[in-house]
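Section 3.1: Structural characterization of target chains.
Under the original work plan, the team committed to producing a structural model for every single-chain target entering the pipeline before any wet-lab resources were allocated. The record below documents one such target. The sequence was received from the expression subgroup and is listed exactly as submitted; it comprises 235 residues.
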Amino acid sequence: MDPYALKKLNQCRRERRAAILITDLGDGRDRVVVEGDTVAGTLGEAVAAAFRSGKSGTAEIDGRTFFLNVYLPAPRLVIIGAVHISQALAPMAAAAGFDVHIIDPRTAFASPERFADVRLDAEWPEEALSRSPLDAWCALAALTHDPKIDDPALKAALEGGCFYVGALGSRKTHAKRVERLMEAGVSRTAIDSIHAPIGLSIGAASPAEIAVAVLAEVIAALRSRGTEAEKGRAA
């Protein structure tokens, strides 16, 4: 690997940015493409697909063979609220490859006994997220139903560019949430990107079923980043 390419990949790792090392298998030359860079033509389509899938592999372009080695940051799922849904969601998300972080200032809920082997902060979201800022490889699920806890976390997620932001509650509850966020200075465009009611519409009733719906929606958002469908939803 070219030393410059290695340096650029290491920088991307530190900054939690996605990158692909493209190697021309014909002449051995390689280059690093960072997500957001412009790559024209059919190769650009292959690069975009690789960023979405996270899978490395070969691409045949105009009679030439390229190997696309994909380097993606580990996706994080930040769950606001140490509730029953979270107890089901956390282990499922961890099994799906997410770094899970639960935040809830209510110590009666945020206890190690209820959440073993999970990063757990029994403090206000503003405090916890100041140490672990949200970014484009984070998903946030607000599940407390308490505006004092959920709203600051949602605002931070929208400002941090999270690939997924979801909030529990009915449409009526969300309408009041929209008003509060707008009063807090959040743009309507950003607010409209919130998935609310949270989770895919599968008729979920129990906490475990709701957790399945939420995780499925998070994964769908992760794998559709940058597509026109996802852009259209947030417009």
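DSSP finds nine helices and nine strands in the chain.
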